[in-house]
Design goal:
Number of domains: 1
Shape: globular
CATH class: Alpha Beta
CATH architecture: 4-Layer Sandwich
Helix content: 25-40%
Number of helices: 6
Number of strands: 13
Largest sheet: 7 strands, antiparallel
Radius of gyration: 18 Å
Structural class: alpha+beta
CATH superfamily: PPM-type phosphatase domain
Strand content: 15-25%
Oligomer: single chain
Protein backbone atom coordinates (compact mmCIF):
# COMPACT_ATOMS: atom_id res chain seq x y z
CA UNK A 1 0.00 0.00 0.00
CA UNK A 2 1.52 3.28 -1.13
CA UNK A 3 0.59 6.63 0.30
CA UNK A 4 2.02 9.84 1.73
CA UNK A 5 0.91 11.17 5.11
CA UNK A 6 1.58 14.50 6.80
CA UNK A 7 0.37 16.17 9.99
CA UNK A 8 0.71 19.60 11.60
CA UNK A 9 -0.71 21.57 14.50
CA UNK A 10 -0.49 25.23 15.50
CA UNK A 11 -1.49 27.21 18.57
CA UNK A 12 -3.10 29.98 16.52
CA UNK A 13 -4.24 32.92 18.63
CA UNK A 14 -4.83 30.87 21.76
CA UNK A 15 -2.51 30.83 24.82
CA UNK A 16 -1.93 27.09 24.43
CA UNK A 17 -2.89 24.20 22.17
CA UNK A 18 -5.67 21.80 23.14
CA UNK A 19 -5.51 19.92 19.81
CA UNK A 20 -3.75 16.59 19.45
CA UNK A 21 -3.00 14.72 16.24
CA UNK A 22 -1.27 11.43 15.45
CA UNK A 23 -0.79 8.75 12.86
CA UNK A 24 0.41 5.17 13.25
CA UNK A 25 1.08 2.52 10.63
CA UNK A 26 2.11 -1.04 9.93
CA UNK A 27 3.08 -2.52 6.58
CA UNK A 28 -0.60 -3.03 5.72
CA UNK A 29 -2.61 -0.45 7.64
CA UNK A 30 -2.60 3.26 8.46
CA UNK A 31 -4.31 4.98 11.40
CA UNK A 32 -4.94 8.73 11.58
CA UNK A 33 -6.49 10.31 14.65
CA UNK A 34 -7.26 13.92 15.57
CA UNK A 35 -8.84 15.39 18.70
CA UNK A 36 -9.76 18.92 19.76
CA UNK A 37 -10.11 19.44 23.52
CA UNK A 38 -13.30 21.36 24.20
CA UNK A 39 -12.39 24.78 25.57
CA UNK A 40 -15.67 25.22 27.43
CA UNK A 41 -14.59 22.48 29.84
CA UNK A 42 -11.47 22.38 31.98
CA UNK A 43 -8.46 20.31 30.92
CA UNK A 44 -9.55 19.86 27.32
CA UNK A 45 -5.94 19.08 26.43
CA UNK A 46 -6.07 16.09 28.80
CA UNK A 47 -9.08 14.68 26.97
CA UNK A 48 -7.50 15.14 23.54
CA UNK A 49 -4.13 13.73 24.66
CA UNK A 50 -5.69 10.63 26.19
CA UNK A 51 -7.86 10.11 23.13
CA UNK A 52 -5.01 9.98 20.63
CA UNK A 53 -2.89 7.86 22.98
CA UNK A 54 -5.61 5.32 23.72
CA UNK A 55 -6.62 4.90 20.08
CA UNK A 56 -3.01 4.70 18.89
CA UNK A 57 -2.22 2.10 21.56
CA UNK A 58 -5.24 0.02 20.58
CA UNK A 59 -4.16 0.13 16.93
CA UNK A 60 -0.72 -1.12 17.89
CA UNK A 61 -2.28 -3.94 19.89
CA UNK A 62 -4.65 -5.09 17.14
CA UNK A 63 -2.96 -4.36 13.80
CA UNK A 64 -0.98 -7.59 13.18
CA UNK A 65 -0.32 -6.15 10.60
CA UNK A 66 -3.98 -5.62 9.53
CA UNK A 67 -7.08 -4.98 11.61
CA UNK A 68 -9.65 -7.75 11.50
CA UNK A 69 -12.69 -5.46 11.71
CA UNK A 70 -12.35 -1.76 10.94
CA UNK A 71 -15.73 -0.74 12.32
CA UNK A 72 -15.27 -2.58 15.59
CA UNK A 73 -11.82 -1.07 16.04
CA UNK A 74 -13.11 2.48 15.52
CA UNK A 75 -16.00 2.06 17.95
CA UNK A 76 -13.88 0.27 20.57
CA UNK A 77 -11.13 2.88 20.32
CA UNK A 78 -13.41 5.86 20.86
CA UNK A 79 -15.31 4.17 23.69
CA UNK A 80 -12.00 3.19 25.32
CA UNK A 81 -10.84 6.82 25.10
CA UNK A 82 -14.12 7.96 26.67
CA UNK A 83 -13.59 5.55 29.58
CA UNK A 84 -9.97 6.61 30.03
CA UNK A 85 -10.93 10.29 30.20
CA UNK A 86 -13.64 9.69 32.78
CA UNK A 87 -11.42 7.43 34.88
CA UNK A 88 -8.73 10.10 34.83
CA UNK A 89 -11.26 12.71 35.95
CA UNK A 90 -12.42 10.44 38.77
CA UNK A 91 -8.86 9.83 39.93
CA UNK A 92 -8.12 13.56 39.87
CA UNK A 93 -11.45 14.35 41.58
CA UNK A 94 -12.46 16.74 38.84
CA UNK A 95 -15.86 18.35 39.23
CA UNK A 96 -16.55 17.86 35.51
CA UNK A 97 -14.77 15.40 33.18
CA UNK A 98 -12.79 17.01 30.35
CA UNK A 99 -14.17 16.52 26.85
CA UNK A 100 -12.93 16.44 23.30
CA UNK A 101 -14.00 16.01 19.72
CA UNK A 102 -12.49 13.13 17.80
CA UNK A 103 -12.17 11.90 14.23
CA UNK A 104 -10.41 8.61 13.47
CA UNK A 105 -9.65 6.97 10.12
CA UNK A 106 -8.11 3.63 9.19
CA UNK A 107 -6.87 2.72 5.71
CA UNK A 108 -6.04 -0.80 4.60
CA UNK A 109 -6.49 -2.93 1.48
CA UNK A 110 -7.32 0.19 -0.51
CA UNK A 111 -10.32 0.94 1.69
CA UNK A 112 -10.85 3.74 4.20
CA UNK A 113 -13.20 3.67 7.16
CA UNK A 114 -13.71 6.50 9.65
CA UNK A 115 -15.73 7.56 12.66
CA UNK A 116 -16.18 10.88 14.40
CA UNK A 117 -17.65 12.65 17.41
CA UNK A 118 -18.17 16.42 17.46
CA UNK A 119 -17.19 18.97 14.81
CA UNK A 120 -13.67 17.94 13.87
CA UNK A 121 -13.99 16.93 10.22
CA UNK A 122 -12.83 14.44 7.66
CA UNK A 123 -12.89 15.32 3.95
CA UNK A 124 -12.50 12.79 1.14
CA UNK A 125 -11.22 14.36 -2.09
CA UNK A 126 -10.65 12.76 -5.47
CA UNK A 127 -8.37 14.48 -7.98
CA UNK A 128 -11.31 16.56 -9.20
CA UNK A 129 -14.10 16.58 -6.64
CA UNK A 130 -15.05 16.69 -2.97
CA UNK A 131 -16.55 13.25 -2.45
CA UNK A 132 -17.53 13.46 1.21
CA UNK A 133 -17.27 15.41 4.43
CA UNK A 134 -18.38 14.37 7.89
CA UNK A 135 -21.56 15.78 9.42
CA UNK A 136 -20.83 18.03 12.41
CA UNK A 137 -22.52 17.21 15.73
CA UNK A 138 -23.27 20.85 16.42
CA UNK A 139 -26.01 23.44 16.71
CA UNK A 140 -24.89 25.25 13.56
CA UNK A 141 -24.92 22.03 11.53
CA UNK A 142 -28.55 21.59 12.55
CA UNK A 143 -29.31 25.16 11.51
CA UNK A 144 -27.68 24.48 8.14
CA UNK A 145 -29.61 21.22 7.74
CA UNK A 146 -32.82 23.13 8.47
CA UNK A 147 -31.99 25.75 5.85
CA UNK A 148 -31.65 28.57 8.37
CA UNK A 149 -28.02 29.42 7.56
CA UNK A 150 -25.64 28.77 4.67
CA UNK A 151 -22.58 26.53 4.92
CA UNK A 152 -20.37 29.63 4.75
CA UNK A 153 -22.16 31.02 7.82
CA UNK A 154 -21.48 27.91 9.89
CA UNK A 155 -17.96 29.09 10.70
CA UNK A 156 -19.00 32.54 11.90
CA UNK A 157 -22.33 31.91 13.62
CA UNK A 158 -22.34 32.84 17.35
CA UNK A 159 -23.45 29.28 18.24
CA UNK A 160 -20.63 27.61 16.29
CA UNK A 161 -19.01 26.25 19.49
CA UNK A 162 -22.17 24.57 20.80
CA UNK A 163 -21.68 20.82 20.42
CA UNK A 164 -24.10 18.12 21.51
CA UNK A 165 -21.67 15.21 21.35
CA UNK A 166 -18.22 14.61 22.86
CA UNK A 167 -15.69 12.02 23.99
CA UNK A 168 -15.52 12.27 27.79
CA UNK A 169 -18.35 13.47 30.00
CA UNK A 170 -21.40 11.92 31.60
CA UNK A 171 -23.08 10.75 28.38
CA UNK A 172 -21.69 8.06 26.10
CA UNK A 173 -20.52 9.54 22.80
CA UNK A 174 -22.88 9.05 19.88
CA UNK A 175 -20.29 7.80 17.40
CA UNK A 176 -21.03 8.32 13.72
CA UNK A 177 -19.43 5.46 11.78
CA UNK A 178 -19.08 5.77 8.01
CA UNK A 179 -19.35 2.96 5.50
CA UNK A 180 -15.95 1.88 4.12
CA UNK A 181 -14.94 3.84 1.01
CA UNK A 182 -12.77 2.64 -1.86
CA UNK A 183 -9.70 4.80 -2.44
CA UNK A 184 -8.31 5.56 -5.89
CA UNK A 185 -4.90 6.82 -6.92
CA UNK A 186 -4.55 10.47 -5.97
CA UNK A 187 -7.42 10.51 -3.45
CA UNK A 188 -6.80 12.59 -0.33
CA UNK A 189 -8.25 12.07 3.13
CA UNK A 190 -7.92 15.26 5.17
CA UNK A 191 -8.88 15.56 8.84
CA UNK A 192 -8.95 18.95 10.55
CA UNK A 193 -10.16 20.80 13.63
CA UNK A 194 -12.49 23.78 13.70
CA UNK A 195 -9.56 26.16 13.63
CA UNK A 196 -9.16 25.22 9.96
CA UNK A 197 -12.44 24.33 8.26
CA UNK A 198 -14.40 27.56 8.98
CA UNK A 199 -11.71 29.54 7.16
CA UNK A 200 -11.45 27.42 4.00
CA UNK A 201 -14.08 26.15 1.59
CA UNK A 202 -13.87 22.58 0.34
CA UNK A 203 -13.15 23.91 -3.16
CA UNK A 204 -10.20 25.93 -1.82
CA UNK A 205 -8.84 22.83 -0.08
CA UNK A 206 -9.21 20.78 -3.26
CA UNK A 207 -7.52 23.41 -5.43
CA UNK A 208 -4.58 23.60 -3.05
CA UNK A 209 -4.24 19.81 -2.86
CA UNK A 210 -4.25 19.59 -6.67
CA UNK A 211 -1.55 22.27 -6.98
CA UNK A 212 1.03 21.16 -4.42
CA UNK A 213 2.62 18.13 -2.77
CA UNK A 214 0.76 17.11 0.38
CA UNK A 215 3.09 18.72 2.93
CA UNK A 216 3.23 22.01 1.06
CA UNK A 217 -0.53 21.98 0.45
CA UNK A 218 -1.30 21.47 4.14
CA UNK A 219 1.09 24.25 5.13
CA UNK A 220 -0.52 26.62 2.60
CA UNK A 221 -3.99 25.80 3.91
CA UNK A 222 -2.96 26.35 7.50
CA UNK A 223 -1.24 29.63 6.61
CA UNK A 224 -4.42 30.91 4.98
CA UNK A 225 -6.66 29.67 7.81
CA UNK A 226 -4.42 31.23 10.45
CA UNK A 227 -4.27 34.54 8.58
CA UNK A 228 -8.03 34.68 8.02
CA UNK A 229 -8.91 33.82 11.63
CA UNK A 230 -6.76 36.68 12.94
CA UNK A 231 -5.00 37.19 16.24
CA UNK A 232 -7.75 35.49 18.27
CA UNK A 233 -8.08 32.43 16.04
CA UNK A 234 -8.48 28.91 17.36
CA UNK A 235 -5.90 26.11 17.45
CA UNK A 236 -5.35 24.62 13.98
CA UNK A 237 -4.57 20.96 13.30
CA UNK A 238 -4.53 18.75 10.21
CA UNK A 239 -3.56 15.19 9.41
CA UNK A 240 -3.87 14.12 5.78
CA UNK A 241 -2.87 11.32 3.46
CA UNK A 242 -2.65 11.05 -0.33
CA UNK A 243 -3.31 7.53 -1.59
CA UNK A 244 -1.04 6.04 -4.22
CA UNK A 245 1.96 7.72 -5.78
CA UNK A 246 2.77 11.29 -4.77
CA UNK A 247 3.35 13.06 -8.06
CA UNK A 248 5.47 15.75 -6.50
CA UNK A 249 8.83 15.94 -4.75
CA UNK A 250 8.02 14.12 -1.54
CA UNK A 251 11.52 13.16 -0.41
CA UNK A 252 10.98 14.56 3.07
CA UNK A 253 7.58 12.98 3.66
CA UNK A 254 6.82 9.62 5.22
CA UNK A 255 5.89 7.15 2.48
CA UNK A 256 4.05 4.06 3.68
CA UNK A 257 5.78 1.23 1.86
CA UNK A 258 8.11 -1.68 2.55
CA UNK A 259 7.82 -1.75 6.34
CA UNK A 260 8.57 -4.77 8.47
CA UNK A 261 5.76 -7.33 8.53
CA UNK A 262 5.00 -7.01 12.23
CA UNK A 263 6.43 -3.55 12.83
CA UNK A 264 4.49 -0.39 13.48
CA UNK A 265 5.44 3.25 13.79
CA UNK A 266 3.59 6.04 15.55
CA UNK A 267 3.98 9.78 15.10
CA UNK A 268 2.27 11.62 17.94
CA UNK A 269 2.44 15.38 17.95
CA UNK A 270 1.95 17.68 20.92
CA UNK A 271 2.42 20.89 18.98
CA UNK A 272 1.67 24.57 19.14
CA UNK A 273 3.91 25.89 21.91
CA UNK A 274 4.21 25.19 25.60
CA UNK A 275 1.05 24.83 27.59
CA UNK A 276 0.97 26.56 30.98
CA UNK A 277 0.31 24.14 33.81
CA UNK A 278 0.17 21.22 31.41
CA UNK A 279 -1.53 18.45 33.41
CA UNK A 280 0.47 15.79 31.60
CA UNK A 281 3.85 17.46 32.04
CA UNK A 282 5.29 15.45 34.92
CA UNK A 283 6.36 11.84 35.03
CA UNK A 284 3.84 11.14 37.78
CA UNK A 285 0.96 12.60 35.78
CA UNK A 286 1.99 10.68 32.66
CA UNK A 287 2.10 7.45 34.70
CA UNK A 288 -1.40 8.14 36.01
CA UNK A 289 -2.69 8.87 32.53
CA UNK A 290 -1.17 5.68 31.17
CA UNK A 291 -2.81 3.72 33.99
CA UNK A 292 -6.21 4.86 32.69
CA UNK A 293 -5.15 3.94 29.16
CA UNK A 294 -4.14 0.45 30.20
CA UNK A 295 -7.39 -0.01 32.13
CA UNK A 296 -9.37 0.99 29.07
CA UNK A 297 -7.35 -1.25 26.78
CA UNK A 298 -7.91 -4.19 29.11
CA UNK A 299 -11.63 -3.80 28.35
CA UNK A 300 -11.38 -3.31 24.62
CA UNK A 301 -8.00 -4.63 23.50
CA UNK A 302 -8.82 -8.31 23.17
CA UNK A 303 -9.96 -9.27 19.74
Amino acid sequence: MKYVVYQASRRGGRPYNEDRVAYSYTSDALLMVLADGMGGHSNGEVASQLTVQVISSLFQARAKPKLQDLGSFLLDGIYAAHDAINEYALRKRMADPPRTTCVVCVVQKGMACWAHVGDSRLYHFSRRDTLFRTHDHSAVQQLFDDGVISEAEMGTHPDRNKLYNSVGGYMLPDIELAQPARLHDGDVLLMCTDGVWPELTASEMLSTLRAYPLERAVKHMMDHAEFRSGQHGDNLSVVAMRFGEERFDASELMVGNDLGLDGFTTQLRNLGGKMPSDPLSTDNEIDLAMAEIQAALAKYGKN
